[in-house]
């Protein structure tokens, strides 16, 4: 799987942003107060979180373009943060914001639009030789390009959290899901949603097979995880999970359960199904 160009990723992010703003504009006040598919959050809390994360991304990119990839004052060092260690604080801040500064629904939508537009404009202003500059994030020292992938991640998964809670026919955008395969492979990014399992002593290799001969290999041992392209002539995997990229996006972020989707016929498995027990110990949500 070749890396997608930054311009292509940005085009998809722009389409998702436009659709997201249109969709939240049409939500009722009841919809905003409804529980989302994201643990602990109502719909309005996700909207406020996306406002915050857009501001964080924009600040990090602007600092990166100015030659500063270091953490702002009071922020943790890169490489020290993960979804498990930071999720409670992130959740509480989003809830507080939705109940205070952004408690008015119309204002929340207006601020959402302003922050989406500002961030997209910042991405558009990144020159071709600036996409790989160091950029700050608690999970790791990233780059504007990896932050663009993270923006796609946030927009794709949190849109599902909102709109699937309202309409269970809402699905992950397939174009976005295919690009996110790159995010799952990125060692700078995937440490955010991987939880080492101290009970796993022996190496475990699981392959994931998508359509069109694409696939991933998940190899974990001694509390580490590597996610890479599946070999063209794969051998050595305990099991092969056959799944769509869209459903895999929900599995790896713990929004869908592997076992139940196998039972429902949405996923097929070849090999030793008992090896799959490790999957949800690695991926506990993000």
Automatic annotation (TrEMBL):
InterPro entries: DinB/YfiT-like, MDMPI_metal-binding. Residues 27-162 form the Mycothiol-dependent maleylpyruvate isomerase metal-binding domain. GO terms for molecular function: metal ion binding. Pfam families: MDMPI_N. SUPFAM superfamilies: DinB/YfiT-like putative metalloenzymes. This is Mycothiol-dependent maleylpyruvate isomerase metal-binding domain-containing protein. The lineage of its organism: unclassified sequences, metagenomes, ecological metagenomes.
